[in-house]
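Course assignment 3, question 2. Fill in each field.
Student: A.L.
Task: Predict the tertiary structure for the chain below.
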Amino acid sequence: MKEEAIYTLALNSIPGIGNVLLKQLVAYSGSPSEAFKASKKLLTKIPGIGPSLISSLESEKKDALLRAEKEAEAIEKEGGFMVHYLEQDYPVRLKSIPDAPPVLFGKGHFHFEAQHTLAIVGTRQATSYGKQAIESFLEELQPYKPVIVSGLAYGIDIAAHKTALQMGMETWGVMATGIDQIYPSSHKQTAQAMLSNGGILTENPLKTKPDAPRFPARNRIIAGLADAIWVVEAMEKGGALITAHLGSDYFRDVFALPGNIAQKASSGCNELIRKNIAGIVLSGSQLAESMGWQLDDETGFRKKRKKERPEGLSDPEIRILDLMDLNGEILMDEIAWRTQIPINQLASMLLNLEFQGLVKSLPGKRFGPMV
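Answer field:
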């Protein structure tokens, strides 16, 4: 396992250091390992870190590192992997959301640079209408080779995973447990089948069992991994609506399948459409058209863009360009936050990219990709 991933995992396990504060700590220190060794003098200069947290960091870090090393060994024995948010292997789509998990655990064979990803979510009380819609939509979407992302739950989720497998499409199951705790257990066989063409992902360490707060947190990962979110059937309240709202907040395209106004299973979808949170799509081809997907899109989106970029770019410079490709024009402060590049280094990198004709400078300390 990679050293920096272990240090990130260790920091993430120290009480009081959440996702946001961890990234801030690393941004000021330079790397997860340097953050672990940071002096009290440096720590006092970091916003959000007070005396009590400094004391906790000092007293807990040795045990935290030992726990992280043991966790990394156990993950490897389980046949899984872990990747931290500064690695190039970390899903670039997920990296673009502000509350992305610092460490991601997975098991299977993933193509995180796939050209298209589609999250399919919905109620656990799926009807034949919803299941048939999944089959007909995915049959039309199959030539576009989207990765199907869902939560491995009952109902719409598991129908989406199973249909994707039947059609030879890659599918990712995002869980609220550790990779060793398939929930519900009745879906173990499907999860096992997914490992050869996709697999399972989580932000939770091994032996983590399902509890209520972890499911909404899981939904932000589903939304973050997707280019588009399709709500097939949903009640007035539930995880599918949380995922849809998160997707909208993350500037993802959100679609919903309209349904009978007398059916409870369609009430959430109809409400998303009424509030203009979701667009209506009546077929897979309509969804592909709305997303601008092309049948000749065969290469990964980052790999395709790399062919158009000069050689010799550093990993941080690639992170900057990937972020702009996903978000367009963006504030310099937000680039620093999302890429975790110190602001003084970022200024010179942006200037260098501008000289190479890859980035344009805009008023108000905004930058964007050259078209």
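Instructor remarks: DSSP finds 17 helices and twelve strands in the chain. Residues 298-304 have pLDDT under 50 and may be disordered.
Grade: pending
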